[in-house]
Amino acid sequence: MLDLIDSHCHLDFDAFESDRAQVVARAQGLGIHQIVIPGVEAENWPRIETICHYHPQLHPCYGLHPYLAEQHSDDDIRKLRDWLAAHECVAVGECGLDYRKQQADRQVQMKYFAAQLDIAQAANKPVVIHSVRATSDVIDAIKAYPGLRGMIHSFSGSFEQAIELIKLGFYISLGGAVTYQNAKKIRATAAKLPLSCLLLETDAPDQPDAAHQDQRNEPAYLVNVLACLSELRNESAEHIAEHTTANARELFGI
């Protein structure tokens, strides 16, 4: 039996409200024994805490997602600082930058991103970073926080950027995107990066693998990401699982 960790999965979302226990059980049955649950907005943090209490194999993060930056407030930063002081978690996030069209103003995003990097460093917690078309700015932001560690979830930058992030103390997390034949850049990057810096994730219910395109994603499908990486890297699934799981345990203290 494989021993896997889904390093990024939104099991608190409404998409899992009707069958969350069954979803967790399916994952467990395939060897996904631990799942990290990132937060996206202040009102969801109590729900994440409750779900992780009910399912001990789930591990909470708390943060403010850039997609919702226009809805966050300065008070949410204070709430995050206070929440972390009173509640256990494995990381701060999901925070970061998203430069796709129709996203929030970049300066507003950076304001909340930098504030959460401040909080993570002060709390001595790793940070879970969302980065879409913004890898250069994410790297520049991280450089202002020596010693800060974390993961770049669903990495989409270049090989060279991945190496720079690794040198800064960050893990590169790979998900369903690598299973698509036309995702040539990330597949080439995934094939070359050292196993010592890789994590696996689903980002469920979003970003399903190629076998479940346009369907609800779930943590059980992490085995498809693993199988794809095994083929891309010409390494056994067991070998990749051993290293990526050890990486996740080291980063999150699981």
Describe this structure in words.
This protein has an 8-stranded parallel beta sheet, sandwiched between helices. The protein starts with a strand and ends with a helix. It has helices at 20-29, 45-54, 74-86, 106-123, 135-143, 159-167, 184-192, 222-233, 237-252; strands at residues 4-6, 32-37, 58-62, 91-98, 127-132, 150-153, 170-174, 198-200. The chain is globular, with a radius of gyration of 17 Å. It has 9 helices and 8 strands.
**Biggest sheet descriptor:** 8 strands, parallel
Number of strands: 8
Query: How many discrete domains?
Result: 1
CATH class: Alpha Beta
What features would you highlight for this structure?
single chain, 254 residues, alpha/beta, TIM Barrel, 9 helices, 42% helix, 16% strand
In short:
With 254 residues, this protein is an alpha/beta fold. The chain contains 9 helices and 8 strands.
Question: Any chance you could write out the topology, listing elements then pairs?
Answer:
Elements: E1 4-6, H1 20-29, E2 32-37, H2 45-54, E3 58-62, H3 74-86, E4 91-98, H4 106-123, E5 127-132, H5 135-143, E6 150-153, H6 159-167, E7 170-174, H7 184-192, E8 198-200, H8 222-233, H9 237-252
Helix pairs in contact: 3-4
